[in-house]
Amino acid sequence: MEFFQRAKVFRLKTSNQSKYLIADQDEDTVKQTRDSSSTYTRWSFELVEGKTNVIRIRSCNSWKYLAASEEPFLLGMTGKRVAQRPWLGATVEWEPIKEGPYIKLRSHTGTFLRSNKGLPPWRNTITHDLPGHWTASENMILWIVDIVEIDHKSTNGDSKSFKGNAVPSRLSNAVDHKSFSSCSTLSIEDDGPSTNSASSLEHSISFSNLRSMLDGLDDKVYVVTERTTSDTGRVLKSEIHMAKQSLKELTDMDYHGILSLGLYKELEKAISKLSADNKTSRQETLQEQLKTMKNDHNLATQDLVDYATFDSKILEIKAEVDKDVAKACVLEATLDKWFSDEYVNPRANKEELLMELEETESSIKAVEVLRSRIAKKNERLEEMEAKEESWQARQLEAERKLERVEKEWHSARVSSINGAKSSIVSEYSVQSAFEDVQTLEVKRAKQTFEQLKNAEFCTILSLGQDKKLEKAVDVLIADAKSIGRGKIPSKLVNIQEQLKSMKNDHELASQILVEHSTFSTKRLEIRDELKKDAAKARELQDLEVNVNNTIVDARAKREELLKQLEETENAIKKVEKARSDSMVEVEELISRIEQKSEGLKEMESKEKSWRVRKNEAERLLERVEKDWGKVKNSFSDV
Fold first, then answer.
1. Does domain 7-155 have CATH number 2.80.10.50?
2. Which listed residue, 128, 228, 357, 364, has the most CB atoms within 10 A of its CB?
3. DSSP annotation string for 140-177
4. CB-hemisphere CA count at 13 Å for 583?
5. Taking 90 as the threshold, does the pLDDT of residue 541 lie above it?
6. In the predicted structure, residue 304 carries a pLDDT above the cut 80
7. DSSP E strands: which ranges in 25-77?
């Protein structure tokens, strides 16, 4: 608490960033700022009754308290939000803890007031958090108490502090308490209610004393002419006469005129002469009362001068702010027009150049792609044409193989199959004569031979009858084997092997013919595509003379566009730099306007109290003049 004992108004400064705790103008947010001159960085404190070493910290602008809320600052983070609140019980209570030359501020939940730093959203924010929940240095919770205004009551219990518009009385310095107790009190008129009852009482007592002293002075004045010059303790008659004459002249003036013309010394001298001639305590007190009136007049006059200075300063700042605002508006309008002329046009030109460059690049790319495609297809066509001879040779070989297969099938059909058939038939006839039995499968196999013997071998394969033929041969072999007691006719075996060989040769030749057909089809397709590409290339040649010239011209145009684009970019950078430099001036002007506005706002907040002081000073001057009128009446009686 020792840091706050002498502080009436203070600022809280971070120990690690030289920033100040500031209550934002929205009267809700609390954050950090480097502007120490801002009135929003000023705070005061209040002691909490019944709790030792616990305070409430209050903003000097919004008059709201620094509160440790339960709202999370960011979702998923442990730090909680610090805000301005009118009154929320224990949430606005803080315990200052000394840490060397710094303090920590601990909330009612045990968390500490923390100044955050780094990138947004942490920059310039204030939170409260428990120790150990952050990885940064503990300097973030250390604060410096920067005292702005000292509370003199706390440093000297006997010193007096005058607040508001109360005018301190001087009567207590001039009049002893005994004279007050012996004097009667007069009722003094006033134009309005007095704000200082003690001052009114003192003035009432003062004028009672003046009245009593002047009444006692009547006899003294007239006795002066009867005193002898031999009395060395008296003033000469001529001096007394001159004092009376001066007093008479001064009573024709108001009290303000006497002071403003510097005639107070003459008044004081005249009173002094009369007081010296008649040494009484009342007359000396009268002289002191005039001095008190002079002091009151000087205080009131000084307050009026201070108010005039304050009012002039407000008008001067308002005029400066209006002038700066007008200058900022003119400068901003000029910058906008200049920027529009110097920046927008190059920017539009840049966009046009970029579009044109894109079109040129597209043209170059299209031509190059077309040429590349034609070149690849030509290479592929050349490769295929180089393979054409081998493919033709394979085709001829395949065709010859197919012919050979057909011939073999025909010879086998004419000789082998018929021979085998007669031999098989004879064998089967002999066997049937003895056994007279034939299976159904053998009959079907014979029928199959009868059906397929006149068909072409290619037709048999294409119709899928080769399996049926092979099965028939297998059945006949099995039947012959059973009849011949394990002996198989060699002709049937040869027919079986020859059929397998013929089938393999036919499939191989057919595959070669299919591949040759695919190869020929592909070559024709490529030739058709080349014809189309050539037609398209001829169209380009018709438009731009030839493809090569088109690419050369497009590339030259691209280089020119790139050069123009570079010049445009440089011009834009110059304009942006010039604008940035000008905006610095505008920002400085705006910052100056904001600072003056803050000062003006602060002064306007004090204007009400100044007006009260002015009214009090005017009433005090009126009261002094009324008192002087009563004193003049007393002098006129003399």
1. yes
2. 128
3. GG-EEEEEEEE-HHHH-TT-----TTPPPP-HHHHS-H
4. 8
5. no
6. yes
7. 30-33, 43-47, 55-59, 65-72
